[in-house]
Amino acid sequence: MPNPKGHPESLKPFTTDRDEPLIEKMNIRMTKKMKEKIQQQENPPEFCRQAIQKALDENIESDEA
After folding, report:
1. Which SS3 state, helix, strand or coil, does residue 43 take?
2. What are the structural domain ranges in the chain?
C-alpha cells in the first residue's frame, strides 16, 4: 500500500542557491502566440523571470537618465 504522505524525499524542505527565494506568484494574461513561444524555451519560468528582470532594469536605467 502506498504511503499516504508521499515520498520522504518530497517532504524535505526546499532549498535554493538564489540570493532571494522565489516565494511570490503572479498570473498574467497573454496571447496564445506568446504562450506558445514561451513554452518552446528550454526553461519557460526562468525565461520569463529573466525577461521581466531585464525590462525592470531598463526601466530603472531610463528613469535615472
Report:
1. coil
2. 41-65
* Residue 42 φ then ψ, to 5°: -60, -45
- Contact between residue 59 and residue 50 where contact means Cβ atoms under 8 Å apart: no
How far CA 38 is from CA of 7, 13, 14, in Å, comes to 31, 29, 26
Per residue in 17-54, pLDDT (tens digit) is 889 888 999 999 999 999 999 999 999 999 999 999 99
The whole-angstrom separation of Cα 29 and Cα 31 is: 7
Q: CA torsion sign, 58 to 23 to 26 to 35? A: positive
